[in-house]
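DM from R.C. (forwarded with permission)

"hey, sorry to bug you on a friday — could you get me a structure for this? deadline for the figure draft is monday and I only need the backbone to look sensible"
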Amino acid sequence: MEMPRTSFGLLHLLLGFLFPFVSSCAASESVYDTFLQCLSNHSTPSDKTSSIVYAQTNSSFPNVLQLYIRNQRFNQSSTPKPLIIVTPTDESQVQAAIICSRNISIQLRIRSGGHDYDGLSYVSDVPFFILDMFNLRSIDVNINDETAWVQAGATLGELYYRIWEKSRVHGFPAGVCPTVGVGGHLSGGGYGNMLRKNGLSVDHIVDAQIVDVNGRILDRKSMGEDLFWAIRGGGGASFGVILSYKIKLVRVPEIVTVFRVEKTLAENATEIVYKWQHIADKIDKDLFIRLLVQPITVENDNESSKAEKSTTTIKATFKSLFLGDATRLIPVMNKDFPELGLKKEDCKEMSWIESVLDWANFDNGTSVDVLLNRIPKSVKFLKRKSDYVQKPIQKNGLEGLWKKMIELGKGGMVLNPYGGRMSEIPASETPFPHRAGNIFKIQYSVTWEEQGAEADKKYVNAMRELYSYMTPFVSKSPRGAYLNYRDIDIGISHNCKNSYQEGKVYGVKYFMNNFERLVKVKTDVDPQNFFCYEQSIPPLLK
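My reply, with the result:
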């Protein structure tokens, strides 16, 4: 019997919609089967591999993917998804994942904590796998020689907790967000509120383990000093997969002091911020005073019916860690920064581990056990950018900046002072080049909860406009940026072929004069550019 034309047309239309989906699924299953067989052949034990590999058809795939997404901008239905997520529990599985991804020419993205601001550790525009390192998170602290081996999948909170378990007078100079992954944080430089005293995280790495493009596990001795140099601030994902770092702990006093003081424009914020610029990098190196600047709305006291009920102003928040007690801190502040008017009652004395909780915005009295929580309370939409300031901004410049921030009404700026130990370490000592000559680093920050493309455009454009406004006040030729404040606005490589010229655009901003040495290391260890992503280090073509 002949099929009616309308039915035939409908069937043809349905097949037209379904065929790409069926083809995609078939291709995905074929890739999965090929990869799984290869993984089994190269892993020990081979019978465990299926339990660590998640294809898109696996019911657990969405949960595993979303578990370590820290920016909702890259957790949308339209966001490209990996073909497969590999969650190794053993180093041999990391080796096998690299070998097998190469064999079938699929790009590999490496995720330790998921805090890449622009999502490059778990998003790609080409077919890709995610190598998710969260199961590899052991921490071995040796107080006798003041070191620790830390696997890449551990979080900073877990590291701080394990140090605290062994000693009340040791710490580590790294970030203030406890859920950040060690692998990405350390390989990109790593800084926190002890950087003026101790420098960066990478300044305290004494050994490492990395799996190279050939699947070999290398330590400092076998990888050589050039590669060891590169993975201490040059971004590990350009050169291989970091398994672990051996770090040197630092001594901390039994008592440290924190304070938080807020000032609005009506409370002389402009004068105080102006003075902060002149002392923040020169004051006692035991003292770190972060400055947060943001527009806020305040209620007016004027009861007149004609008066505005509220006004937008600027709030400057001075948040500090001092490696000592308040009795020693107050004279330092009175001598070098009396404009802030710090009083003894503004100060809180506590142990170093309690200061970690304070800086992470936990309530007073929160148990230290909270540092073992790997998942943040909430995940929102966000955009971040960075800059370096090398000359103080004049008062009229600050007043213009306040006007611009009030006009935009969105986001803020976090100013982190340098100086101290940061000025003593040569720019070429590690790939991170922003040392002497920088007064402070800026993080431009906007966070929102509104869904949709319009909201995304509105908030991201506000940050870009503020960043553009700051051009006259920041470093130049090149305009510096911090790798761990990932920002694809400053340039990307569009493919993994002939990427040197594109890579140089963002590379010199992140690494200054260290970029060419990183390129040389990349060319030596990964000449075919297997470890490639939008802002990876490119090799030179031979």
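R.C.: lifesaver. Residues 1-24 have pLDDT under 50 and may be disordered.
me: no worries. The longest strand covers residues 287-299.
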